[in-house]
Amino acid sequence: MPQSSLTVTDNRTGRQYELPIQDGTIRSTDLRQIKTDSGDFGLIAYDPAFMNTASCRSAITFIDGDRGILRYRGYPIEQLAERSTYLETAYLLLHGELPSRSQLEKWIEGITVHTMVNENIKKFIDGFHYDAHPMGMVISTVAGLSTFYRDARQVHDPEVRRRQIHRLLAKMPTIAAYVFRHNAGRPYIYPDNTLGYTANFLSMLWRMSEGTYAVHPVLERALDVLFILHADHEQNCSTSAMRGIGSSGVDPYSAIAGAAAALYGPLHGGANEAVIHMLNEIGTVAGVPAFIRDVKAGKGRLMGFGHRVYKNYDPRARVIKRLAEEVFDVTGRNPMLDVALELERIALEDDYFVSRRLYPNVDFYSGLIYQAMGFPVEMFPVLFAIPRTAGWLAQWEEGMRDPEQKIARPRQVNTGPGVRDYVAMSKRD
Ligand code: CMC
User: Fold this and answer.
1) 374 C-alpha vs ligand 1 centroid, how far in Å?
2) Three-state DSSP class for residue 15
3) At CA 76, angle to CA 74 and CA 79, rounded to 5?
4) Is the CB of 304 under 6 A from ligand 1?
5) 257-307 residue pLDDT tens
6) What's the alpha-carbon Rg for the chain, to the nearest Å?
7) Distance between CA atoms of 5 and 18, rounded to whole angstroms?
8) Which of 26, 116, 170, 185 is most buried when burial is the number of CB atoms within 10 A of its CB?
């Protein structure tokens, strides 16, 4: 049997070290024994942007980026998108198994009773400027929720955590709908708990004076599938933020606000918004070659393309591309689809993109669907944040239960000056 270890020779000292290998990893802390002398701190792994560092052990989501595979708790994303619902998928992420019928009913009931938000929340949403970005409002409002649930600070109590998980899953769509209505200058619509999770969200967004909002079943299902596809994606930027902030022991509302802030950026959840801006800028199919030339010349990026982990077609993009056709049958075809299809066609043949293994990611087509459904582009990252809440919470819960986890606190390579004496102002010139 070959040894499951790594032998390292430190050429500075000639000493050899045996580092155990477990699950294809070595422990960075095992490097610390490698010292030049007793005063040496020991070797540190330097990994800016965490290109090759596992920060946790996780049983939630599996990605094989080379083969374009995504599974939640072992279930292929394509099967969940085809057969599951968002709330069932959220249960799966959080509990590890698909629920029985009665477990699912209890789960849905436990979430549905929490869809209302405190009336004061409406007041502070009112305080935002009429054209405030919805994601900024969502981030602030979720952070504000922590002040309403003082019990949420007892993060080491599993029952308290369970309660906040129900609340957060239930209230994210309500907050998202309220900020949308605020931008639109329309009255807030209370949740209708006779409707399902996604239908209720659509009702809070679009209902006007009618008693009950008639949700189009194709659009309801399409949004639910989009929610499934966005529910988790292992240790991405926002999830790492969730785990990192949660590791300090803060309440989950504050941690979700931080995770949502990470999601807001254009390189992460803001990319679907950036895709629409890019398509508008290109304008027509005829404008695609010139745009591709500019990207290759380093003038900007092809938004919705490329991924840190996927070096193959993002499996979520494949499902979304199919879903777009179903949605467009109802809403009419988004005229920008042709520009997107042409961009994809050219990029998939072009050596610049092929050699860098850049393929469409989840954000490339999702924005076109959201736009066809009537969402303004600024709502797109919010539509990502709602379902990702399940993933953030599942990862937070897993982190809270992991006895190996401590407060997240990376090291640095110090490049600052050595010690020096304070210089009086009169002597600084
Ligand atoms: N357009 C043009 N070139 C690109 C792109 C792109 N979208 N993405 C990467 N590259 C090039 C990059 O310039 C670099 O080339 P070179 O080696 O010549 O310097 C090479 O590909 C590797 O790129 P990188 O920046 O080192 O890759 P990364 O893993 O750090 O970045 C990424 C991943 C997703 C931030 C990046 O691909 C990107 O900016 N994509 C556009 C934004 C986007 O669509 N983001 C959504 C990601 S999926 C959903 C989510 O996570 O929220």
Assistant:
1) 28
2) strand
3) 130
4) yes
5) 999 999 999 888 888 888 999 999 999 999 999 999 999 999 999 999 999
6) 24
7) 6
8) 170
